[in-house]
Amino acid sequence: MQRKIKITLMRGVHGRLESHRACISGLGLRRIRQTVEVDDTVENRGMINKVSYMLNIEEA
Description:
It contains two helices and three strands. It has helices at residues 18-26, 42-50, and strands at residues 4-9, 35-39, 55-59. It starts with a strand and ends with a strand.
């Protein structure tokens, strides 16, 4: 069974770098305060680390 990470978008993407916007959409987030569960993979960890200042992260 794959471990999961619960992430919540806490800040908007307006005015952010295009690569940061791409990471947010790649994680499946669309709206502020939306929460999604993603698999704990190297690729997802990289995207989370890149935009961690915009997210609230919990172990699921």
